[in-house]
């Protein structure tokens, strides 16, 4: 009998119409537009799916989450967190009080004995959360940088990612 191996998950979280809140989605779109990922990697624009992301979390381990974070600091600054940081309350896992927090979603996965063991958060502090589909300049400047961090992490995990060929004009 074969054992099912979980995939590596890359999830962009956020609200695309609230400017910097869409950082995770913009970063995932950049990765999808510029790189080819093997079948061992699941890459998703989660948006504001909340509880609906639990089946995706259950299929993946480790999970690399790209999002904005509500913490003190300079807008656009990068912050890395682990699941242990979240459980210790070191940062807020939801920007809106209406969102179901990631910890609650992971608890639901745990009830089904399918929670990922390793979750990493690649986050930036937003500058603006106004109505716009464009990122602020300071946060937009972090998209490629965080995407490269994700690519380096995949390489550490033994995953080969190929850059898409740019058509010659």
UniProtKB/TrEMBL annotation:
One of its GO terms (biological process) is protein processing. Its EC number is 3.4.23.-. The keyword Cell inner membrane does not apply. The keyword Membrane does not apply. Keywords: Aspartyl protease, Hydrolase, Protease. CDD domains: H2MP_MemB-H2up. GO terms for molecular function: aspartic-type endopeptidase activity; enzyme activator activity. It comes from the Bacteria. InterPro entries: Pept_HybD-like_dom_sf (IPR023430), Peptidase_A31 (IPR000671). Pfam families: HycI. NCBIfam families: hydrog_prot (TIGR00072). Belongs to the peptidase A31 family. This is Hydrogenase maturation protease. It comes from Desulfoprunum benzoelyticum.
